[in-house]
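queue> pop job 88
queue> type: inverse folding (structure -> sequence)
queue> payload:
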């Protein structure tokens, strides 16, 4: 809430739900108090000192604490705060808190307290000691009025304030008080307060993440998994899973990070939080570091954001990564430096992303060669020869590249590798044709034919006999034997078995039996 909004927002405060029972209007005293209140409001812009005097008179004139005194104190807080008189504003606020017990309704007091604390929390000029007094006085008043719910909400608001300002000692003290509230008589977590406990854990996780204390972060993150009977706001779950993803990233557990970031995105999306865009970027980074070929924007949940202006640079980066286009990726990062690199978390892992991309590009680049100059690789990767040599040494030690480096001549000498997919395919075909030939031999034996002349296993075998006689033809591999290529037929007298030869891709003969 801005200064002007805080000072001028009076419309809402007039609706307190009061009903006036006096049919003839208020009595003379009440009318005088009301008139002085509105006169004071009219003066606050042109003569704030006179307005303050009139508002103090309203408080004094009211015989009992009531509606007009509450409103007058609220106006005093606004005017003094707007003028930078924080001590006077605090004094008026402390007096206003005494009205929350019985002078106004609980809803009215809660709304006023929340609005004032929100404004106080966002003030860049208020010193932390005075700010802390606003919260401590609020907590004291709420405890006296037995308003436990608002008291805890106030502590949570204060904890979020200390987190935003990175006041770690103050935050730790506030979190300790909140943990005490969530602890039962036996010293265990009170599961009936699971929703509050999860929010406390979320604040702790964020604190440890900011401090880089990943050991404590992991302990707290694990503890969140055991909280029962909680119905947390999706935003809280989003915070927890986001911090969990960052924890996994620090451990280089890319797949676990990807899962947490995706769940965080879903929760932020459900809550309507703008943080969903930033977490979606984290998800993209984690997925690239996994080496996954799956486009993170193919899912039903993320697809609507694929063309978001804040995301398009990341979608282009994913496309370049999947196509192993290292130069395109470098260009995207250069052209979208502010969009991508502004976040310190993303900036910390972009080097890993580029490193993985360069590594895969290098492996693909050297495959056709037996030897290759390091300078050639350096030019293709936009790296120094020394950096390329270091990368190759790492790959050789990891057995991802079979070879050695000739340091004198600055070359990579590649060793023969295991058969590739193509050679394995042809070896399998050779085994298959050998098996077919064996079947042919066995069939011939059972049909009573001699193999002395040799089976014709050529794809262009000799002409076979047709009709009802055993086909005998001369093939390139022998004579006198039945031809299995080019359409030979076999018939054993009385057996009713005929056959036809089938050639196999020029690699050998084939036999297909037909009953």
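queue> result:
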């Amino acid at each position: 809430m801005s200064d002007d909004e805080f000072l001028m927002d009076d419309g809402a405060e007039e609706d307190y739900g009061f009903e006036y029972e006096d049919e003839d209007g208020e009595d003379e005293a009440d009318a005088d108090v009301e008139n002085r209140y509105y006169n004071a409001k009219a003066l606050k812009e042109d003569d704030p000192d006179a307005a303050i005097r009139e508002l103090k008179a309203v408080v004094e004139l009211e015989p009992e604490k009531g509606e007009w005194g509450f409103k007058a104190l609220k106006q005093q807080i606004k005017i003094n705060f707007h003028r930078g008189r924080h001590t006077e504003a605090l004094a008026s606020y402390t007096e206003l808190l005494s009205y929350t017990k019985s002078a106004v309704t609980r809803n009215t007091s809660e709304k006023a307290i929340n609005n004032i604390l929100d404004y106080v929390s966002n003030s860049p000029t208020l010193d932390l000691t005075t700010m802390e007094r606003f919260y401590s006085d609020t907590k004291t008043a709420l405890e006296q009025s037995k308003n436990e719910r608002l008291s805890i909400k106030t502590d949570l608001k204060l904890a979020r304030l200390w987190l935003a300002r990175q006041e770690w000692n103050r935050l730790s003290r506030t979190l300790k008080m909140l943990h005490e509230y969530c602890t039962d008589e036996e010293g265990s977590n009170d599961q009936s307060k699971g929703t509050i406990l999860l929010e406390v854990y979320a604040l702790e996780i964020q604190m440890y993440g900011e401090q880089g204390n990943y050991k404590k972060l992991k302990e707290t993150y694990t503890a969140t998994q055991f909280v029962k009977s909680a119905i947390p706001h999706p935003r809280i779950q989003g915070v927890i899973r986001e911090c969990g993803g960052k924890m996994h990233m620090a451990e280089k557990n890319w797949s676990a990070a990807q899962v947490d970031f995706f769940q965080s995105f879903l929760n932020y999306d459900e809550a309507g939080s703008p943080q969903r865009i930033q977490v979606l970027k984290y998800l993209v980074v984690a997925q690239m570091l996994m080496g996954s070929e799956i486009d993170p924007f193919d899912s039903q949940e993320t697809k609507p954001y694929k063309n978001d202006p804040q995301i398009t640079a990341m979608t282009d980066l994913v496309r370049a990564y999947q196509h192993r286009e290292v130069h395109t990726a470098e260009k995207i990062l250069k052209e979208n430096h502010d969009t991508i690199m502004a976040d310190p978390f993303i900036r910390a892992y972009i080097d890993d992303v580029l490193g993985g991309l360069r590594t895969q590009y290098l492996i693909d680049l050297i495959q056709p060669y037996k030897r290759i100059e390091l300078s050639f690789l350096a030019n293709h990767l936009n790296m120094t020869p020394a950096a390329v040599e270091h990368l190759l040494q790492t790959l050789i030690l990891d057995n991802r590249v079979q070879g050695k480096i000739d340091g004198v001549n600055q070359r990579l000498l590649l060793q023969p590798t295991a058969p590739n997919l193509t050679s394995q395919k042809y070896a399998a075909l050779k085994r298959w044709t050998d098996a077919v030939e064996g079947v042919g031999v066995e069939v011939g034996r059972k049909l009573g034919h001699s193999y002395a002349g040799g089976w014709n296993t050529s794809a262009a075998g000799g002409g076979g006999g047709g009709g009802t006689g055993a086909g005998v033809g001369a093939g390139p591999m022998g004579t006198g034997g039945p031809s299995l290529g080019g359409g030979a037929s076999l018939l054993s007298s009385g057996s009713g078995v005929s056959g036809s030869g089938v050639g196999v891709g020029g690699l050998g003969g084939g036999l297909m039996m037909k009953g």
